[in-house]
């Protein structure tokens, strides 16, 4: 027995502020130590910081400890006998154990607090040996049979281990002490493994560290001590994630291996622990040197084992796992193959009835499935399927791994479906995944993953069968998976990604922008929740970039494309070279940058795209399934550079790459073969266009013919192949004049144009080419043109955004005028009018005439409407239009064509069914002329068709005002041409630009320049008079009207460049003779379409009739318009007996104005207007807070609105890129519900606007009765007064009337 003096050098007692009530009243405290219930000694506390409640002991307590059953209580009491407070209760064995951490420490601080104590206490202690006992060698624990454990099999109790620890620490033999401490410490570790009490883990580390201190470097077991302690540090690292623990563990396990020899019995165990350390390090830091070291160590452990070693299967399994990790990082197929070999040996060494068998079979199956996904070897997938089935059969239903194994089996069977398209495979996959979900309890943490996997399969079912209910179910499953997954769960980003994918599929089908926005939001959340070092982060970034790029393609906003490029660039940057996904990411980034080149034309973008796509090719080994797709992308980019720069080396390289792509693509029904042959033909055709070698043209035709032959009828891509083939044949006919080529071209064009599937814009172009070929072949082109016209509603499909519609319609305006010109040439005048009307303002017709019926259809037959939209969007696209890297094809070409044909038949059936419903008779087709006749019941409507082959006026003339019947009068404009219209428009635009008439206001010095400018503008008006207007008036037999107010009415519907010229002001103003200007004969109005004039009856005047006036005398950031308030005053005077709501200055916010417009009958806007050249839908009225855009005006109709006066600049200026589309503010008001609109073609002078306003409203409100139909006559008279007062052309010409 020995005596230890524990010196409590100081005690710090801290009380919360304010001082605890039990102590705050005591100016002094004392502390005493109670040993085994008997007070030993007391010492006072001196308050060092009375305000902070901190006391420090002024003396030292010496406490002798004898034996292992001494207990201490440290009490605090006041000097005046207040109630004692227990600060701490400590067992001396624990106490000495905790303070005696390192012999070389002078002291140790122990924070401790009794549960009933209101204070915190810190003991600062040191240990002194007063008397050292004498031990005999018999006291030591000899080797051989473990004297500590004896015959024990179970893990000893904590109390027993502590008692043994107390005995062992008194041993004099340091090696024996180290040996026994190591056993005690490792048993604490085992105790922790059994009960998960963290204190046992900490105790294990403490004692194992102590064993290391006692152990001699030259002792018998330093390797064991190091490895055991390293193993326990690894365990604590897995619990707490402290990097220091894994570093210590690695160093200790390295030391164990270093001091051991290969022949040592436990060397395999030391290597096992060291390998674990390196794998943990790789998992944390992702450094390849760590996984490389782990693999080398794993393999070394396998080599050191005999083949019949019981631990060999585990060593092989560890090696296989490490190789699999390196494969996932580097993509090395050698690693995956070697991992499979090791796993196969593990399975071979494991008895069939071994409990480890199902788990090992499962791992082997997973690896085989991985290899199949990389190399496409069917044998791997088939073997994986067999193994997964065995795993499922060997696993009882109540086994916790049964659901996951069922899900794995379902996934591999779905893989088979993805390759072969056998619907039974998909049904089987869904069945197994559903069983997995059913077996898994709702509160199990793995339930969300199983729900998500099932959702993926249901989504595939939707893709193959097209049942929207399947997609909705997939979205529901993915949403549930997301909802059940905590935000900080590592699977949360994956679940968000899968949900985003399902929602994206719904967007692809229904075209609702909200779904695309939702998918982007979900993908952004997946990115935000994933740390930069996570291997999935690049994938999520890539998906996000791809989705944002889809939004760019939908909206055309360059900001989206920039964001897409940034996301995909981040994905590339975070992905190390050698990663199997790196080529896919590089290619995706390259395609996004190439899109920016297509949009902005910066050649540096194209150079960057080529460099990225070249890198993608270089990173991809030959034989990789993605290699052809990457080569194809690179070839396309090089062909684009050739088109831009003309370097023949680029087209040679493009052809070389595309030829390689064709050679690498199997002939046995590969879904990409036809398109790749077509692309090769396109490249060879480009070389012909440059060099003129007819052999190239012959080769191009051959490749394109092969593509057509391989593509089954009904496939959405076939029409593009047919069209390309036809164009090459047509070109060869033009060069070599072989009639057979022309006839073959007609066959190809007609087949493409009449294809029931594919993109409408391609069908439209093919139909026009068909018509051109027919004209050369002396065949009637009418059927071809009719096919083109019938396609127009689908070109501007109501499910696509207006910006996309306008982008596509820029390509078709001239072609529609061409069709009208040909029909007129063939004297098919009714057909010409129908086509002209259908081609005019087709986007607006979708808004007015098509979107509304679809809404009505959706209200009456929602399933019918949804199905129609879904089918149409599917038919416009193709799953094989682009090479999708890493994605398996869902179907064969023939199966996909069959599906598309079935969808086309169903679409046509739905349309026919819809046309039988009341009010839907003309659904998605042009109205017959008899239904257009009412447009002319108040006066002739002149459609001026301008094309290169001829120009004509097609005029609907009313028979009489009582019967809404019309005749079509055709007046050829023989002296007018398309080129003349272009030159007039250019000259007109130059004049307006030079006069700075793009903003309303007084233009200083303008009148001083009038003499120089008058002739130029006058010459335009003279040309319009001589070549356009006068022939029309003469053809209609109009005479000069000498009686004011009795002029006839005429409506102008111009096309092409003529749509932007002031036909209403045509005349020879240099002559004083009567009858030399249009205003001498008629009152002119404009209309964007005939349909816009139909059903324009005068509404009844109700008691709630209201006029809205909006005035902006000082719009922020714009020139002041002080006369706008004068305009409002004139209106208020004219409407003195009516309700007028006026919003002026800061009252005129966009929200208030838009709300008031919906509540008003007449609307007067006196403010700045803006025609946005880049995107007409962004044109609008500049109000106090922001611009009220055209896109806002046409969202929903103004039910009460009847008339609008837009006293602003450029309110009737259209977009010259879309001459057939009346995309301006005045037309926007017309199609929002107003029956008539006064607008301006360019800016007006601020002083002129009140004059015109006063004259117009006085006539329209004459007698206190609002009469909208007087608007055109009122404007005619008001402008006449302005003109005759000496105002310049640019002052009076811009005012126009649209509608009735």
Automatic annotation (TrEMBL):
<protein>
    <recommendedName>
        <fullName>CHAT domain-containing protein</fullName>
    </recommendedName>
</protein>
<dbReference type="InterPro" id="IPR011990">
    <property type="entry name" value="TPR-like_helical_dom_sf"/>
</dbReference>
<dbReference type="Pfam" id="PF12770">
    <property type="entry name" value="CHAT"/>
</dbReference>
<dbReference type="InterPro" id="IPR024983">
    <property type="entry name" value="CHAT_dom"/>
</dbReference>
<feature type="domain" description="CHAT">
    <location>
        <begin position="1047"/>
        <end position="1300"/>
    </location>
</feature>
């Amino acid at each position: 027995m020995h005596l230890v003096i524990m010196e409590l050098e100081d005690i710090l007692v801290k009380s919360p502020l304010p001082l605890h009530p039990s102590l705050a009243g005591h100016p002094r405290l004392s502390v005493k130590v109670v040993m085994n219930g008997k007070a030993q000694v007391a010492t006072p506390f001196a308050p060092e910081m009375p305000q902070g409640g901190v006391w420090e002991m002024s003396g030292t307590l010496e406490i002798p400890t004898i034996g292992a059953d001494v207990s201490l209580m440290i009490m605090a009491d006041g000097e005046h006998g207040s109630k004692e407070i227990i600060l701490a209760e400590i067992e001396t064995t624990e106490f000495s154990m905790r303070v005696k951490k390192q012999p070389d420490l002078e002291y140790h601080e122990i924070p401790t607090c009794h549960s009933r104590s209101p204070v915190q206490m810190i003991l600062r202690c040191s240990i002194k040996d007063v008397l050292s006992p004498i031990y005999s060698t018999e006291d030591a624990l000899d080797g051989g049979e473990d004297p500590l454990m004896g015959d024990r099999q179970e893990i000893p109790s904590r109390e027993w281990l502590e008692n043994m620890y107390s005995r062992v620490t008194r041993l004099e033999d340091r090696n024996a002490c180290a040996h026994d401490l190591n056993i005690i410490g490792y048993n604490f570790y085992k105790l922790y493994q059994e009960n998960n009490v963290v204190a046992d883990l900490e105790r294990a580390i403490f004692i194992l560290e102590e064993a290391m201190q006692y152990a001699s470097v030259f002792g018998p077991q330093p390797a064991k001590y190091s490895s055991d302690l390293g193993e326990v540090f690894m365990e604590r690292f897995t619990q707490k994630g402290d990097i220091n623990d894994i570093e210590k563990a690695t160093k200790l396990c390295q030391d164990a291996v270093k001091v051991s020899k290969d022949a040592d019995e436990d060397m395999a165990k030391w290597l096992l622990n060291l390998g674990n350390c390196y794998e943990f390090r790789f998992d944390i830091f992702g450094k390849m040197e760590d996984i490389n070291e782990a693999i080398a160590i794993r393999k070394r452990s396998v080599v050191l084992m005999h083949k019949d070693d019981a631990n060999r299967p585990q060593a092989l399994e560890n090696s296989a796992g490490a190789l699999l990790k390196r494969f996932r990082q580097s993509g090395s197929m050698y690693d995956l193959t070697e991992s499979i070999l090791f796993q196969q040996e593990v399975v071979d060494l494991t008895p069939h009835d071994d409990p480890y068998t199902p788990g090992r079979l499962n791992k082997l199956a997973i690896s085989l499935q991985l290899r199949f996904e990389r190399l496409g070897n069917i044998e791997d997938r088939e073997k994986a399927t067999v193994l997964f089935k065995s795993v499922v059969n060997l696993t009882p239903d109540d086994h916790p791994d049964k659901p996951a194994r069922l899900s794995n089996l379902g996934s591999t069977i779905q893989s088979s479906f993805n390759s072969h398209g056998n619907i039974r495979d998909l049904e089987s996959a869904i069945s197994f995944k559903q069983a997995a979900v059913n077996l898994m309890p709702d509160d199990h943490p793995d339930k969300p993953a199983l729900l998500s996997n099932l959702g993926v399969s249901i989504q595939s079912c939707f893709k193959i069968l097209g049942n929207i209910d399947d997609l909705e179910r997939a979205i529901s499953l993915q949403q549930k998976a997301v909802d059940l997954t905590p935000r900080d769960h590592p699977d949360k980003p994956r679940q968000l990604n899968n949900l985003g994918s399902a929602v994206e599929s719904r967007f692809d089908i229904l075209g609702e922008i909200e779904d695309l926005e939702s998918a982007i939001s979900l993908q952004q959340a997946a990115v935000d929740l994933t740390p930069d070092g996570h291997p999935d982060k690049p994938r999520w970034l890539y998906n996000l970039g791809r989705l944002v790029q889809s939004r760019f393609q939908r909206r055309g906003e360059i900001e989206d494309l920039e964001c897409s490029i940034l996301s995909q660039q981040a994905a590339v940057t975070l992905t190390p070279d050698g990663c199997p996904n790196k080529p896919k990411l590089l290619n995706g980034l390259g395609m996004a940058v190439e899109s920016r080149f297509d949009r902005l034309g910066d050649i540096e973008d194209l150079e960057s795209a080529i460099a990225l796509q070249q890198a993608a090719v270089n990173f991809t080994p030959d034989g990789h399934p993605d290699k052809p797709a990457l080569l194809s992308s690179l070839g396309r980019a090089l062909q684009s550079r050739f088109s831009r720069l003309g370097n023949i080396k680029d087209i040679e390289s493009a052809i070389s790459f595309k030829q390689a792509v064709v050679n690498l693509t199997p002939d046995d029904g590969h879904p990409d073969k036809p398109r790749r042959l077509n692309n090769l033909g396109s490249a060879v055709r480009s070389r012909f266009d440059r060099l003129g070698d007819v052999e190239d043209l012959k080769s191009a035709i051959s490749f394109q013919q092969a593509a057509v032959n391989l593509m089954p009828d009904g496939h959405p891509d076939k029409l593009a192949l047919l069209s390309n083939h036809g164009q090459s044949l047509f070109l060869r006919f033009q060069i070599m004049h072989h009639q057979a080529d022309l006839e073959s071209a007609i066959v190809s064009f007609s087949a493409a144009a009449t294809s029931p599937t594919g993109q409408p814009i391609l069908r439209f172009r093919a139909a026009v080419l068909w018509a051109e070929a027919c004209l050369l072949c002396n065949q009637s082109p009418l059927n071809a043109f009719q096919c083109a016209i019938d396609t127009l509603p689908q070109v501007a499909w109501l499910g696509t955004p207006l910006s996309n519609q306008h982008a596509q319609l820029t390509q078709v305006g001239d072609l529609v005028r061409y069709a009208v010109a040909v029909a007129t040439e063939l004297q098919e005048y009714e057909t010409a009018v129908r086509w002209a009307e259908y081609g005019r303002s087709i986007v607006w017709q979708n808004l007015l005439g098509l979107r509304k019926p679809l809404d009505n259809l959706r209200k009456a037959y929602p399933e019918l409407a949804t199905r129609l939209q879904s089918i149409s969007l599917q038919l416009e696209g193709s799953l094989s239009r682009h090479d999708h890297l890493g994605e398996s094809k869902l179907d064969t070409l023939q199966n996909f064509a069959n599906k598309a044909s079935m969808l086309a038949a169903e679409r046509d059936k739905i349309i026919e069914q819809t046309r039988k419903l009341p009010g839907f008779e003309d659904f998605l087709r042009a109205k017959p002329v008899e239904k257009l006749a009412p447009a002319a019941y108040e006066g002739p409507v002149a459609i001026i068709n301008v094309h290169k082959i001829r120009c004509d006026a097609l005029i609907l003339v009313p028979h009489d005002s009582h019967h809404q019947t019309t005749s079509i009068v055709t007046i050829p404009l023989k002296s007018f041409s398309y080129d003349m219209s272009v030159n007039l428009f250019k000259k007109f635009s130059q004049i307006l630009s030079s006069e700075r008439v793009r903003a309303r206001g007084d233009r200083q010095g303008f009148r001083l320049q009038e003499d120089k400018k008058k002739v130029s503008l006058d010459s335009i008006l003279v040309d319009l008079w001589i070549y356009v207007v006068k022939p029309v008036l003469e053809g209609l037999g109009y005479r000069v009207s000498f009686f004011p107010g009795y002029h006839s009415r005429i409506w102008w519907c111009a096309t092409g460049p003529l749509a932007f010229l002031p036909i209403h002001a045509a005349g020879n103003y240099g002559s004083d003779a009567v009858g030399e200007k249009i205003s001498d004969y008629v009152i002119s109005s404009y209309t964007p379409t005939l349909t816009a004039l139909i059903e324009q009856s005068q509404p009844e005047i109700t008691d709630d009739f209201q006029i809205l006036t909006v005035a902006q005398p000082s719009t922020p950031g714009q020139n002041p318009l002080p006369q706008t308030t004068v305009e409002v005053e004139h209106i208020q005077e004219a409407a003195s007996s009516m309700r007028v709501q006026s919003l002026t200055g800061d009252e005129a916010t966009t929200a208030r104005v838009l709300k008031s417009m919906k509540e008003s009958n007449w609307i007067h806007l006196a403010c700045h207007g803006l025609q946005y050249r880049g995107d007409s839908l962004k044109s609008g009225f500049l109000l106090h807070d922001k611009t009220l855009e055209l896109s806002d005006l046409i969202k929903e109709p103004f039910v009460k609105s009847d008339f609008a006066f837009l006293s602003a600049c450029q309110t009737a200026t259209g977009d010259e890129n879309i001459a057939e589309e009346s995309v301006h503010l005045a037309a926007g008001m017309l199609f929002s519900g107003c029956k008539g609109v006064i607008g301006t073609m360019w800016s007006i002078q601020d002083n002129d606007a009140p004059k015109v306003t006063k004259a117009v409203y006085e006539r329209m409100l004459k007698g206190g009765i609002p009469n909208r139909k007087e608007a055109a006559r009122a404007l005619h008279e008001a402008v006449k007064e302005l003109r005759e007062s000496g105002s310049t052309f640019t002052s009076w010409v811009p005012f126009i009337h649209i509608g009735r």
